[in-house]
Amino acid sequence: MNTAGQCFMENDIIIKNFAVLPEDAKDIRTTVFVEEQGFCEEFDDIDNISAHLVLYCNNHPAAVCRFYCESNQYFIGRLATLKQYRGNGFGAMLVAEAERLIKETGGESVMLHSQCRAMAFYEKAGYVPFGESDFDEDCPHQWMKKTLF
Questions:
Q1: β-bridge pairing 109-115 and 73-81
Q2: Is this prediction's pTM over 0.70?
Q3: Is residue 9 within 8 Å of residue 111, measured between CB atoms?
Q4: Angle at Cα 122 formed by Cα 51 and Cα 74, nearest 5°?
Q5: Helix (H, G, I), strand (E, B) or coil at 75
Q6: What is d(CA 112, CA 76) in angstroms, rounded to the nearest whole number?
Q7: What's the rounded Cα separation, in Å, for the pair 81 and 61?
Q8: What CA–CA distance (Å, rounded) separates 58 from 35?
Q9: How far is CA 35 from the centre of its chain?
Q10: β-strands 128-129, 134-136: how paired?
């Protein structure tokens, strides 16, 4: 039985925080955003000012997100889970960990630029849309925000 995409115990899951974009995060983002979704401009200067979270399942990199602060406002972005690990709640775990770390540093709210098809995921986590939707590389996106308590 192939268990590559399954974690059986909470101890099988580890989230690591990196100050520099690690290769594991690059690999996941390339697979999901470039190869699966067709984005061309995946990596940017924001990577240089971001913290990068990588979730490992049984020591295999499975999911990633980044967060950063700009002009006293925190942002979460580039949340991605490899296909074989989807449905395990890893995205929600990463968002919760990013929010915890942001709150720990004094952040009171978080913004993100969601693909419109992912809005329900973020709404479930307490994010609300604001402003007009726009396009990033021909993909509809919506700004969303959450107040941290």
A1: parallel
A2: yes
A3: no
A4: 35
A5: strand
A6: 5
A7: 9
A8: 24
A9: 17
A10: unpaired
Residue type present at position 92: A
Q: What is the pLDDT along the chain (149 residues), one digit of tens a residue?
A: 234 556 555 669 999 999 999 999 999 999 999 999 999 989 999 999 999 999 999 999 999 999 999 999 999 999 999 999 999 999 999 999 999 999 999 999 999 999 999 999 999 999 999 999 999 888 999 999 999 98
Contact of 97 with 66, CB cutoff 8 Å: no
* CA separation for the pair 42, 98 (Å, rounded): 20
Torsions phi, psi for 57 (to 5 deg): -115, 120
For residue 112, give the 3-state DSSP assignment: strand
| Amino acid letter, 35 | E
In whole angstroms, give the CA distance from residue 87 to residue 62.
Answer: 12
Token look-up 């967060």 returns 67
Structure tokens at 91: 């995205």
Q: Are strands 60-70 and 13-18 parallel, antiparallel or unpaired?
A: unpaired
